[in-house]
Amino acid sequence: MSARAGRLGRRPFTRGALLCLVGACGAPQRATMAPVDVDAAATSRERRAALEVERLHAFFTGWFRGELAARDDVFAGFADVMAPEFEIVSPGGASSLREALLAALRGAHGAWRDDADATIEIRAQRATALPGAPYVLARYEEWQRRAGAWRGRRSTALLREAEGAPHGLEWVHVHETWMS
């Protein structure tokens, strides 16, 4: 790992932290959130990428649990950071473009409602700003607990500078692989 790579430890989401991460809490609460633990040598863009990975997965947790309202303005916390050319390759190898992913995720609101312990944790996060380009390569493990069992996937994401986006970055590409 390079000296400039940002790293995060294991971070489960509490409901209060979840709501703040996705922008559903007031400014005073947001200001009291603990900072994300990244390597001191990380660049600002690498730190922002680490925060964005945390923010987006907090959104997923709240959306799937049904804790976030199924409204357009709330869903925009996800949709507005997906670049027009966004593509994701799932752990099973299927590729989805932005619009298909948006439709699938919108339809999954509350899918975890009956599983009180369902959660997502981000572990082993690293980010590397690409020199001379407005991109950051983020790598992390995403661990989901469903029905009491944990399952992990290793993810690589390409994020790009985007004015007005949370943490100033939008998602361009994600590739996920199941962990054994």
Give a written overview of the molecule.
The protein is of the alpha+beta class and 180 residues long. It has a single domain, classed as Roll (Nuclear Transport Factor 2, Chain: A), CATH 3.10.450. 29% of the residues lie in helices and 33% in strands. Strands 1-4-5-6-7-2-3 form a seven-stranded mixed β-sheet. It is globular and about 45 Å long. The N terminus is likely disordered.
Point out poorly predicted stretches.
1-37
Mean pLDDT: 83
CATH architecture heading:
Roll
The CA-CA distance between the termini, in Å, is 22 Å
Spatial shape = globular
Count the helices. How many? 5
- String of helices and strands: EHHHHEEHEEEE
Main sheet: strands, sense, barrel: 7 strands, mixed
- The CATH topology turns out to be Nuclear Transport Factor 2, Chain: A
List descriptors:
Nuclear Transport Factor 2, Chain: A, globular, 7 strands, 180 residues, alpha+beta
Write the layout of secondary structure elements.
Blueprint (H helix, E strand, L loop, with lengths): L5 E3 L6 H7 L5 H5 L12 H22 L6 H8 L2 E8 L5 E3 H10 L11 E11 L5 E12 L2 E13 L7 E10 L2
Parallel strand pairs: 2-7
Antiparallel strand pairs: 1-4, 2-3, 4-5, 5-6, 6-7
Helix pairs in contact: 1-3
Briefly, what is this?
This protein is α+β, with helices and mostly antiparallel strands and 180 residues long. It is 29% helix and 33% strand. The chain has helices spanning 15-21, 27-31, 44-65, 72-79, 98-107, and strands spanning 6-8, 82-89, 95-97, 119-129, 135-146, 149-161, 169-178.
